[in-house]
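Re: your question about DUF3179 domain-containing protein

S., sorry for the slow reply, the queue was backed up all week. Below is exactly what I fed in.
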Amino acid sequence: MLQPEEFDVGRITWGDTVFERFDVDQANPLKDLVRRRRMRPADKVLVVERAGKRLAFSLYQMTYHHVAQGELAGQPFILSFCAICHSATTMVPVLDDGKLYHFTCVGVYNGMALLRDDETGSYWDHISGECLHGPNKGEVMELIPVEHITVEQALKRWPDLKISYSIQPWHRRWILEPVMNLFGDRGIFPPKFRLSMGKKDTRLPEMVSGLGVHTKKTKRFYTIGTIQEAGGELKDRVDGRPVTVSLSLDGYPQAVFDGSEEKPMQLYCRWYGFSFTFPGCELFGEPPEAKEETAASAEKTESK
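Result:
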């Protein structure tokens, strides 16, 4: 089985690139931006929830910022998004010491956005919320699922949904963001990304999309294809509880515990991002012995 590896500072790529954090200070009705043609029904948004309140962010804009930080319902949050692996996570930026920390994307590690806190300079994994290196090493932020959804479907579910929309300078709006979104949409690694990557899990092609569910006990990946083959909905158990994994009307996967609206921690992402974050994770539908044999073969290949 592939084993977790020590964080290697020397593998940080684009470490001299610091993306501007989106500090959230305002929000407007999403339907107003649609009416003004600033957003289209087919555009994608990321929806953050805190204390029963929701706030949307443009996925297109988050491809540049990578991190948005603010308060919702009086509670602090950060939204982290990696354009290439497609994963988005909400985290609570308050640690056991009671202090509020501020985060920025400062490069790439294992082909994914790497976060750093302003207060101590520690590096953090943007999927697991774990501090990988620095004074806060070993600390883990509380995680909250993020919903991927189109503007059209979001407004059907939450007609009064608000969005925090970043004001963009022309060079970012017309040059940087289109280029970065092109790489993300096509699943193409930008230059030097592979230099940041360690041993790969070759059980699936690296850009296969799916749903990654991760709890303290369970680390499991469901491919979009597997869900589609099951008719758009499949049954499973997570931590001993029955769960339904399905595709929404706009094609995004989600897992919900049966008989409730509760969701295990999950994220829509590409295989390489989930398997790098959780080495040796389960692949739904794969016999346990196949996972062991394939992982062992991958380790042998990488060691040559």
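The helical segments are 30-35, 59-65, 151-157, 170-186, 224-229, 271-277, 288-303. DSSP finds seven helices and 21 strands in the chain.

Happy to talk it through on Thursday.
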